[in-house]
Structure formats: structure tokens, C-alpha cells
Amino acid sequence: MWSKNATPLNQRRKNNMKENVKKELDTIKQMVLRWRESYLGWATSDGGNDYLIEEFSEEISMYVSPLVRRLYENKFLSLSEHHEFMESCYNQLNELHDLIKIKEAESQKTPKGIWA
């Protein structure tokens, strides 16, 4: 026979699981942001940085997407939560692109060579 405490125990487990999933998503989000900053650090001021955006996209597809997809497949995330999280990750590609272009533009404003 089930005890009267089964429902609160199950509820605590569900709450703990939701908390764990949130922590996992926060960790993944921080990892993606660190990757973005790392790729930005590798960008050169003279252009030719498109490969950085491609590699960043590949990392998200290869490492983040499968993790988030599994959370969805195991019903820890709804479909809309899955899409929203992945969209936020891929938006970091646009951020990286924009930051790289700013870095390249700033270097073009700086005169090169020795000026008397």
C-alpha cells in the first residue's frame, strides 16, 4: 500500500529534477558564452575570421544540441523550451559575428606605420 507521503516525496523529486535541469542549462549557457569569448579572442583585426564563426557553430551543433535534445526527449524540457534554449545558443553566433566585425572596424580606424 502507498504511504500518504508518496505524493510529497514525488513532488520533491520532481522539484529537485527541475532544479537540476535548470542548473544543467545554466552550465551549458555559461559554456557557450565562454566559447564565444574565446573565439572572439582568436579573431584577428585584419579580417578572415569567418572560420571562427563556423567552428563556433559546429561546437554548438556537436556538443550542445545533443545534450539539449536528450533533455527534451526525456521530457525534462518542452518543445518550446528546447527551441528557445537552442535559439539563444545560436544567437551567440550573431553576437560573435557582430563583435568580430566591430573589432575589425576598430583596427581599420587606427593608422598603421610611423607618423611624424
Description:
- With 116 residues, the chain is an all-alpha fold.
- It has a domain at 46-104.
- Helix content is 79%, strand content 0%.
- It is built from three helices and no strands.
- The chain has helices at residues 6-42, 50-73, 79-109.
- Helix 1 (6-42) runs parallel beside helix 3 and helix 2 (50-73) packs antiparallel against helix 3 (79-109).
- The radius of gyration is 21 Å and the shape is elongated.
- The N and C termini lie far apart (92 Å).
- The mean pLDDT is 89.
Series of secondary-structure elements, N-terminal to C-terminal = HHH
Beta strand count: 0
The helix count comes to 3
Alpha carbon gyration radius: 21 Å
Give the CA-CA distance, first to last residue.
Answer: 92 Å
What percent of residues are in strands? under 5%
Helix proportion of residues, in percent? over 70%
Which structural class do the helices and strands define?
A: mainly alpha
- Contiguous runs where pLDDT drops below 50 for at least 5 residues: none
Q: What is the 3D shape?
A: elongated
The biggest sheet amounts to: none
Tell me, rounded to a whole number, the average pLDDT. 89
Quick tags:
116 residues, 0% strand
Architecture blueprint of SSEs:
Layout: H1 6-42, H2 50-73, H3 79-109
Helix pairs in contact: 1-2, 1-3, 2-3
Quick recap of the structure?
It contains three helices and no strands. The protein is mainly α.
